[in-house]
Structure formats: C-alpha cells, structure tokens
C-alpha cells in the first residue's frame, strides 16, 4: 500500500512539473514572438525613414535653404528624444 501511495505522489509531482514547464515554455514563446515582431517593426521604420530622407535629398538638391531647415528640425527632434 505504501508503495502505491508513494508512486502516486511521484506521478503527481511529475505532472505538476511538466505542467509548469509547459506554461513557462509557452510564455517564453509568446514573449519571443512579441520581441521579434517589435524589432522587425523598428527595422522597417528605420528603413522607411532612410528612404524618405534619400528621396528628400534627391528632390531638393538645389534648394539649400530647405535642406538647412530640415537639418535644423531633425537636430531638434533628436535633442527632444
């Protein structure tokens, strides 16, 4: 009788351990997915900013005054952050 009770307790502890391990792995998976999707968004946003800046300079190569204003605004926005 005591062996049956002992085996039953070991099975219950093993089941709880397996359940906790599964939950931890699922949480880790969700956090990883959120992290990588956020990183992907940041990279895409930086690439879009570079493309906009490139187009801006191509369209306004001859306009030094606008370029100077843009640079001032850009520097101000960096200082705010």
Can you summarize the main beta sheet? Answer: none
- Number of alpha- plus pi-helical segments: 2
Number of strands: 0
For the termini, the CA-CA separation is 70 Å
Characterization of the model:
The model has no long low-confidence stretch (mean pLDDT about 85). This protein has one domain (about 1-80). It has two helices and no strands. The radius of gyration is 29 Å and the shape is rod-shaped. It is mainly α and about 80 residues long.
Summary of the model, kept short:
The protein is mainly α and 81 residues long. The chain is 93% helix and 0% strand.
What's the topology here?
Blueprint: H1 2-59, H2 64-80
Any key phrases for this structure?
2 helices; mainly alpha; 81 residues; single chain
């Amino acid at each position: 009788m005591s062996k049956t009770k002992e085996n039953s307790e070991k099975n219950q502890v093993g089941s709880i351990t397996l359940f906790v391990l599964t939950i931890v792995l699922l949480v880790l998976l969700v956090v990883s997915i959120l992290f990588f999707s956020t990183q992907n968004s940041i990279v895409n946003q930086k690439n879009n900013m570079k493309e906009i800046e490139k187009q801006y300079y191509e369209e306004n190569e001859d306009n030094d005054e606008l370029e100077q204003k843009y640079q001032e605004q850009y520097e101000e926005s960096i200082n705010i952050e």
